[in-house]
Amino acid sequence: PRPPVGLGKAATLAIANRPAPQRPDLLLVGRPGKALTEVAETARAAGASVHEIGCDLARLADVRNAGQQVKHLLESGAVRPLRGLVANAGVSVGDTHNASPDGYELTFAVNYLAHAQLIGDLLDSLVAPARIVLLGSNTYHQNIFRRILRVPPAVWRDPKELARPTAPDVPATSEEGWTAYSNSKLAILYYAHELQRRAPAGINVTVFEPGFMPGTGLSRGHGPGLQRIGRVIEQIPGVSSATRSGPMLASVVLDDRWAHLRGGAFVVKDEEREVKPFAKDLARESRLWDATAELLNSAT
Q1: Is the bond preceding residue 165 a cis peptide, omega within 30 degrees?
Q2: Residue 216 has pLDDT above 70, yes or no
Q3: 68/87 Cα distance (integer angstroms)
């Protein structure tokens, strides 16, 4: 079967294929290996300046090292000033017994903590005007479509509890993996709102929802059967795919049309939308910020 196309690859190539005056230097942070190399080579073939930075986002030490590599490239003048950061990586696992190398629940570690680490390390390196775009998802709540598919919404708990893997003696349930994914995406919304309050002037924070993309590799943790079903669903008109949503993500980080967005504004494909009222919560956002600092410091 053909390998799934990820949103990161599609967005990268959409940027690389822009006319030279609109094309920024690309710093690609991702799992080292053939896939990262192929994306970088394809982007270079389109004329882009590309630097690959191998990083296992499940390992916070790797993420910190990636941040240091980016800083070195910036300080050495090897790349132009940093004006955009896309926090795109994501996983969805079958259950919450899986722990990252730092001991955190794997979905929360990759989808949220890794991004908070990298953004925190590079926040002072961004040159205004600049944009930070985090990948969100409407799975934080349960709309009609997700109710039909039995994708559960977020069930928010204290961030330190969300970061704790399920104990080995507690049986897995069919929903816990998806609930963890939804929780990580609600965390992204809370984090984006608090990040904007703390970011330097001229650094705008946005959350991008690419739409339901059943044909990507995100569901690899749920087995090949689900991925095959996803590729069939992907052919239905109106259903999103990485190749359709990738250029939209590139647009949000680069185009003047979106320059006004800030405060964790929520963009669904190519339309700004309001989030549900519970997705804006000053107390939860402040607590998440403090707990995140504690979790990241504990992993040093």
Answers
A1: no
A2: no
A3: 16
Residue 149: pLDDT band with limits 50, 70, 90: confident
3-state secondary structure of 19: coil
pLDDT beyond 90 at 182: yes
Q: Cα 255 from chain centroid?
A: 19
Surface-to-core class of residue 225, CB atoms within 10 Å of its CB (0-12 exposed, 13-18 middle, 19+ buried)? exposed
What are the contacts of 287-293 at 24+ separation with CB within 8 A? 287/158, 287/159, 288/159, 288/187, 288/190, 288/191, 288/194, 289/191, 289/194, 289/198, 291/158, 291/159, 291/160, 291/163, 292/112, 292/113, 292/116, 292/159, 292/191
Residue 115 belongs to what H/E stretch? helix 114-122
- DSSP class of 99: B
Q: With contact defined as beta carbons under 8 Å apart, do 70 and 122 qualify?
A: yes
Render 29-79 in DSSP notation, one character per residue.
EE--SHHHHHHHHHHHHTT--EEEEE--TT-HHHHHHHHHHHHHHHHHTSS
**Is residue 104 within 8 Å of residue 166, measured between CB atoms?**
no
Residue 203 has which token pair?
């650094």
Q: How confident is the model at residue 215 (pLDDT cuts 50, 70, 90)?
A: low
